[in-house]
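Worked example 3. Consider a protein that binds guanosine-5'-diphosphate.
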Amino acid sequence: MSTTIAAIATPQGAGGIGIVRISGPKSQEVADRIFRSPGNRRIRDTAGYQALYGHIYEGDTLVDEAIALVFRAPRSYTGEDVVELSCHGGMYVLGRVLSAALSAGAVAAAPGEFTKRAFLNGKLSLTQAESVMDIIGAQGRQAATAALAAREGVLGRRIQDVTDSLVELAAHLSAYIDYPEDDIPELQEVQLVGSLSDAHRRLDDLLATYDAGKILREGVDTVIVGRPNVGKSTLMNVLSGVERSIVTHIPGTTRDVVEETVRLGDVVLRLADTAGLHETDDPVEAIGVEKARGRLETAGLVLAVFDASQNLEEEDRCLLKKLDGRPAVAVINKTDLTPCIDEAFVRRHVPYVVTISAKQEMGMEQLREAVCDVLGAGSWDPSAGMLANERQRDCVRRAGEAVQEALDTTQMGMTYDAVSVSVEGAIDALLELTGERATEAVVDQVFARFCVGK
Ligand code: GDP
Ligand code: ZN
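Given these inputs, the predicted complex is written out as structure tokens:
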């Protein structure tokens, strides 16, 4: 890896400071060609972690005033010599500083190339590299905590623990297979099954963090359903704090699916208000109803709204039946009016029921708690690390399947050879997860998600 790369590392747009990052064996040389400090101090003569004040020139033309931060290999983000030029944060100026660096011998960095170099130089594991993206993209406290835990190696240690125990097992198995006549104590089947089951359980625990992590990163796909006029749009407006949906007395005025992202405690809901799940002759409304039906089946959370002041209608009962086994909260609205609804009937179908008045914004805290309960958010522990993407989940799933295979093989009384092959398969999947044994294609795919400058 002999090239020296450069890119603008701060976001597109205007800011107080913008940074051009240069990394590679010639980064100091490149920087010295475009950077002049008042006392003619050269970047290559400075110790690592020093900052120099000066000016950037392209040829003899002054481009900007800048601070050069010098990092020496291996003590830098990429593990290479790095110079960061902190300039004024305008896109035009930064573009010129970058082009000066490119003219002075650097090449334009590819997307994610700084982090990829950090990975290839052993500064980061693959899961840590992925966490860099997740820290940058985090939209809330828990998502940031999970990403930071991965960056700090908490997730990596959980994976490492399982890998270590499997490697130990594999070593024991192969010693026994290779030197059966020596005095290597035979593994008792109970021991073998015990270790494998333990590994399997820990992999399962890891897998379970994926769904929660996804909700924290992306929010939960939520649909608000209920027959016309029960207060769906009003509820949506309360949750989002904006008058987005049209609220009227005439049933069926919410013609299409309106979407909104709202935060309810620690959980982000991607909300859709719908035209209600009722039969209609109006073709425009019918489209909304169709969409609502589709979303009811796939949504990660259903808020089913009912009118407390009215008897349950056939349509309500129909909806309640559809909610069996779905992640749903029954929201009994309009409790400011005289109650009439058969609440017990609702509770028989949906375990999570809250009574609210959307109009008076009452009961929102209970709604928040019910949503957390349905999603199981109480048991989430982002600081213990969570699987952050499908690649990670896929690796853990494959490892789990291989361990299961090893368990089955053991219990069927097969030879240790067969067990050993499965255990090796599980180890492979885990090493692919951390990147210790990932193919170039896998690594490339991970960094393809990054953008230039990271
Ligand atoms: P949607 O058709 O389900 O979207 O229902 P809307 O949100 O459009 O509300 C229908 C009517 O019910 C409107 O006149 C609202 O003001 C009224 N409404 C909504 N929530 C409440 C509530 O909690 N109490 C009372 N009294 N009226 C409500
Ligand atoms: Zn509506």
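Take a moment to read the result before moving on. The longest helix spans residues 189-218. The two ends are 18 Å apart (CA to CA).
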